[in-house]
Write a structure and sequence with these properties.
Oligomer: single chain
Distance between the termini: 24 Å
Structural class: alpha+beta
Largest sheet: 8 strands, mixed
Number of helices: 4
Strand content: 25-35%
């Protein structure tokens, strides 16, 4: 598996993976689906967008961007998406580690996740295994697809 900068030819597969996470309604805050135009604009607007590819197939991706501006511009934020049929193969871990390296290269000092849903135990376990620190719990900070609310757990790590 290779993790590399995305190319325009990857957009269709990237959109399918991204939209499947949006459709699940339990991890990403977005509610709108991406199409070829909005997907290219979205992925191109990030500080860095990477894909994990094996044998010409996109297995996952991440986006990396500032978490804030100005005096907090040294803190970055990221989102990860792994194709549902290849989850559990440590692709997410490789994406997070690559993202951390890329964040350092881009001059960020901290990687922060604002809205990790409390029930997303696989992501939380991964982040804690890597060394991220949980900042607490925000009660009812995430509206699930079914309209119920779930707690979110912000995380950070120094790069």
């Amino acid at each position: 598996m290779v993790i590399r900068n995305f190319e325009q030819t990857d957009i269709s597969e990237m959109i399918n993976i991204w939209n499947s996470i949006v459709e699940e309604g339990i991890a990403f805050p977005q509610e709108e689906y991406l199409d070829e135009t909005t997907g290219f604009e979205f992925f191109s607007s990030q500080s860095y967008t990477a894909v994990a590819e094996k044998d010409g197939v996109i297995l996952g991706l991440y986006i990396l961007h500032p978490n804030n501006v100005g005096r907090c511009g040294h803190i970055c934020n990221a989102s990860y998406a792994v194709k549902s049929d290849v989850r559990g193969q440590h692709i997410g871990e490789k994406l997070v580690l690559d993202c951390m390296d890329k964040g350092k290269i881009l001059g960020f000092k901290i990687l922060q996740f604002n809205a990790v849903v409390e029930s997303n135990i696989h992501a939380r376990h991964l982040y804690e295994h890597i060394g991220f620190h949980q900042l607490g719990i925000i009660p009812n900070g995430f509206r699930l697809k079914n309209g119920e609310y779930a707690n979110i757990c912000p995380y950070y790590i120094e790069l």
